[in-house]
Design brief:
By secondary structure, this protein is of the alpha+beta class. It is 23% helix and 49% strand.
């Protein structure tokens, strides 16, 4: 009778551990870089999308405008493609990040590092 009680509890503990590991791998995010020019700010974040020896990430640029004493979210842009987590979150994971105020309209320029051996990817620009 004791065996019947232990087996379901053991299986439940294993299932909970597997779910916890899976959720944390899917939701791990890191700020890659931030650029500010006057009242405009761009924040680049990476969200881990897979695990293993070569984990991948999706990269998002979020734009803010200063409003009083706070930063107001004005938009976001997800970079197309998938990036290597260890490359994009490394100290030189971005080749370029700039908030350009002139000529109008204000825009953000981002150029991610694909890999150290391949080099920089395409520059992406979007307006605030």
């Amino acid at each position: 009778m004791v065996v019947r009680r232990i087996v379901p509890v053991f299986i439940a503990v294993l299932a909970a551990a597997a779910l916890t590991t899976d959720v944390s791998a899917r939701t791990q995010t890191r700020t890659v870089a931030t650029a500010t020019a006057g009242a405009y700010r761009a924040v680049v974040t990476a969200a881990k999308t897979s695990a293993g020896p070569a984990p991948t990430a999706k990269v998002t640029v979020v734009a803010y405008v200063r409003s009083g004493s706070r930063w107001k979210h004005v938009g976001s842009h997800r970079l197309s493609g998938t990036f290597f987590w260890k490359t994009i979150t490394a100290p030189h994971g971005l080749c370029t990040l700039a908030v350009v105020r002139k000529p109008a309209p204000v825009h953000v320029v981002v150029q991610p590092l694909i890999t150290p051996s391949i080099g920089c990817g395409s520059r992406v620009a979007f307006d605030f």
